[in-house]
Fold this protein.
Amino acid sequence: MDYKNSATRKAAITGVGGFVPEDKLTNADLEKMVDTNDEWIVSRTGIKERRILKDPSKGTSFMAIKAAENLIQKKQVDPVSIDMLIVATITPDMPVAATAAYVASEIGATNAFAYDLQAACSGFLYAMSTASAMISSGRYQKVMVIGADKMSSIVNYSDRSTCIIFGDGAGAALFEATQNDFGWEDEYLRSDGSGRMFLNIKAGGSLYPTSEETFKNGLHNLYQDGKSVFKYAVSEMANATEEILKRNNIDSEKLDYLVLHQANKRILDAISRRINLPEEKIMKNIEYYGNTTAATLPLLLFDYESKLKPGDKLIFAAFGGGFTWGAAYLTWAY
Ligand code: UT7
């Protein structure tokens, strides 16, 4: 289907919100937990610290609610007017009972239907595509998209190759029909299930139900073959970005910001070299948040919101477990 011609009206982001927990996990803290050091972590990943939701009684919904409330307050949104709410996450509060339904109830979005979307680090990108389609079809007026992950709940803090990367956080964006013709312009989304062996949590689903055995073998934690994921992440995010640049006639001069999933600073550098984009056009938060999975893209928007102006050209790109990946082009509406 021709995505562009199917749209009857364009969807725009009309507000963003964000939340990160106060507690920091620094490289010095990690040095006390695993055999690593600040120099290795900074030079191999670009990360100096991450935020961690320490309170064991709080799950991903706590951060998602905070991010949504931040947006609602800033933009004076009446929560009752929200039609639909998606939470992109791989760390739902519970395996069953959508975190999104709980978030919607807690923020007073009593007219919304809500569900979770699981596409790992590409979750927010995919959810934005859904929100945009729901608005441009004319079916709904206001769709809130939240990306939230409590990565500290699934990371194995004795595995030095994964625990150094991840952090916790949440970000939210509101989609509505555009008032000024700026908004969702194009998308290129893909997946490849043969990649699931490289990045997964094996147990707790229908293939390996929870058992003493799965606990003993540590199959409930996040597993990552970092080197392989790195290779695919660079090539597929760069390919998807180039495709979007080409078919929308945008060059690195015309592009205002590349909003890239933040898994490793070396991935950002490799992509900026490949598409010949100056470093300052790549939004960054990896140094102080680490990889926050589905929260990364909305937290970038939250951090850079004050720098953005109507008409700015943004290209999003993400890559994550599944494998899932893609890129999207959006013009900023406010
Ligand atoms: O967001 C979802 C998608 N995820 C990603 O895109 C992650 C992509 N992958 C990465 O960011 C990187 O692969 C990592 C940061 C995870 C690992 O970096 P790397 O440069 O690929 O390291 P490596 O796994 O190839 O390991 C190189 C060496 C090994 O030692 P030997 O075997 O050469 O002696 C590791 O044991 O570095 C060692 N190493 C460490 N040393 C100190 C691995 N982790 C650490 C550590 N501190 N934390």
Summary: The longest strand covers residues 168-177.
